[in-house]
Design brief:
Elements: E1 3-12, H1 17-34, E2 38-44, E3 52-59, H2 62-68, H3 72-81, E4 85-95
Antiparallel strand pairs: 1-3, 1-4, 2-3
Length: 101
């Protein structure tokens, strides 16, 4: 079974990490616990960076990710953080060698 991966690299406006991170962590936790199609949602901060956050999300399929974008917790997160984000790059990938674990 191939799974769908989203990788997001956020560049935040200076000084907003303290406000952004709790909202990001809450969104990730709710995605993992409330969405049956979300298998993984890692929130990473690159070493030495103070204004960047990298996400690695794995979903059962593209439809599960589309459902994620319609959840109340994602919609709330998106609205609350929009002004904090200077730039964002989104990568969409497939896991080809997935053994389901």
């Amino acid at each position: 079974m191939k799974r769908y991966v989203i990788a997001v690299d956020f560049v935040l406006h200076p000084g907003v990490m303290e406000k952004f991170m709790p909202l990001m962590l809450e969104n990730a936790e709710k995605s993992r616990t409330l969405e049956p199609g979300c298998d993984r949602f890692d929130v990473c901060v690159p070493a030495g960076e103070t204004d960047r956050v990298f996400l690695y999300e794995i979903y059962h399929d593209e439809a599960a990710f589309a459902a994620h974008l319609k959840t109340p917790h994602f919609i709330d997160f998106d609205a609350a953080t929009k002004a904090m984000i200077k730039d964002r790059k989104i990568g969409k990938l497939w896991i080809e060698n997935d053994d389901g674990k």
